[in-house]
Amino acid sequence: MKMVVSNLPEIQGFRFDSVGKVLRQSIIPGLPDDLALRCLAKLSHGYHGKLETVSKAWRDLIRSAEYGNYKARQGWCGNWLFVLTEGSKNEWIAYDPEADKWHPLPIPKMLFTTTPHIDLKHFGFSCVSVCNRFYLIGGSYAPHDSAFPHQRHFITNAVFQFDPFLKQWSNAASMVTSRSHFACCVVSGKIYVAGGRNLSTPRGLVLAEVYDPLTDKWEELPPMPNPQMDCLGLSYKGKFHVLSDQVGLPDQNTSEVFDPSDGTWCTVEDIWPFSRAMQFAVQVIEDDRIYTVVDWGESLIKTRDTEKGEWQNVGSVPSVVLPDHGRPLEAFGYGFAALRNELYVVGGKVLKWEESGAGRFDIVKLGLVRVCDPLVMPLKWRETKPMFGSACGSILGCASMEEGSSY
Questions:
Q1: Are 380 and 372 in contact (CB under 8 A)?
Q2: 346 is a domain residue
Q3: CA within 13 Å, CB half, 280
Q4: Which of 113, 133, 175, 353 has the least C-beta neighbours within 10 A?
Q5: Residue 255: inside a domain, yes or no?
Q6: pLDDT tens column, 119-154
């Protein structure tokens, strides 16, 4: 097996011929160079830090564009869980389940040119992964400091994409409409967005559009039958479902559904067990296994019978036990994500009440990460490596990317 590397005369100690064979210094002594490079390229991103400590030559190879391009040609993006917390100031972190390691992503340099102030808090955005890229879409920017409550929010249509092979951010084509708190999901390899709000339409948008990552273009869709704001997008059996913030309330169990096959919207009567379309309320595994978390005092996880449309309890999100506090505490504000057919509960907060019963409490920000296989009953939760540094507390954004998945 030969690796073809073009325009690559030398990479800091490694020199290649026209078919990618190393002419100076073996990558791994005793192994053919093409096999050695393939072995290094197969290792997931969480191990790159350790690989770079082996030697300067390995470090330069791992950091080179040619190494990333080789992984990209093979489709070896690895498995990623992307998370943005309230305390990380626009710096995303990523988890590698194979290495059980968290690491920071670079802050997108484009933020300096697309937002009026880099120190603004980013919220109300959507984030998804498709075609081995992670996309950060739209949203609002506002001051971190609550001392300026009257400063106007800045709502954007900007889209950023993160390349897991080169570990770099770049600009993607902007949406046609600026929006925040909108529905977004991936259906058949394309990104669909709908609803939300902006400064000109604060009561909800009917506008929808679709992005094709292969052409880097947005196309407007027919408008929804009804405006939606603070809504959630769901990809289910090849259709784009828009759940409003009123689902679960009496007489408010409708959702808007777009069928890409014929380009039409319809309003569907449906039952959802939560009383508000939380940002991370629903996860779909393998296109038809739906899981939702009911985070209103119960912290229950439910699944849906796809034929009957009925919801069943799977289990509950485990309570948090702090080392210096006697009783279990219920978390809130956490992220809920699916990765490799497992469910993740990430971060959040708890109210730590005084044991004296004086009615006072502290808000404790969590970096905990807990995982379970929803098909193993009863649920067996395990803790993985917690988030690090300032990455803790409420989750502002959360999305996964899986190797071998195009959608």
A1: yes
A2: yes
A3: 27
A4: 113
A5: yes
A6: 678 889 999 999 999 999 999 988 766 555 556 678
